[in-house]
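[Meeting: bench + compute handoff]

Bench side (C.D.) handed over the final construct sequence. Compute side (W.E.) agreed to return the predicted structure before the next meeting so the bench team could plan truncations. Sequence as handed over:
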Amino acid sequence: MNIKLNFNKNMAQKIFGIGLSKTGTTSLTHALKIMGYHTIHYPFNVLKYQNGELVLNAGRLNRYDACTDSPVARFFRELDKHFPNSKFILTQRDVNSWLTSCEHHHVWPGEYAEKVSLGKSPLIRRVLKLHEDLYGSASFNRETFTKSYVKHEKAVLAYFKNRPEDLLQIDICGGEGWGKLCQFLNRDIPDHHFPRRNIGANKVFKRTYRKYFWRTLSALSP
């Protein structure tokens, strides 16, 4: 697929969290903030949907020190080329645990796409396109998601094969935290507990998100 790029180049070093959603990206975001980095989680506004393609405007990331989650994971190669000397963090998780979390504690746009007419809304189309590109489907599918997880991990490891100093693999959900992260970024360990995402709170978020996602889709439908 031909991805169009619209960059306002900024050579300042960045930190990119390129793990898939539900691999500890929210915890990583909070950890980077604690360390003093100006961090944004899931910077969806960097993406546009034009002529069936995702268009990346990386210039919108210039004011941030660090960015995490799906929009970043989708374009890690392009971001590496346009932000030289940056550091990349691949959050990983036991695949079965990840699948369970995706199935029960996340909202996938495809769950609602069939319930309303999406028309030509660029907003909804870019949501669907991002999930289809990165996860293989905009709706949860265990087999498809498993293949997509493995594919993404292999792609990242192959890309950074000769640059191990630029990539950190970390299993936050499995208990890893400050030690590996601070060593990788050459920073002192903060006097603060490593942040862990609360599963119960995530369930509440999911119910709330479902409600407002449905309202948004309905409002945008013709």
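W.E. noted at the follow-up: Confidence is low (pLDDT under 50) at residues 1-11. C.D. will use this when planning the next construct.
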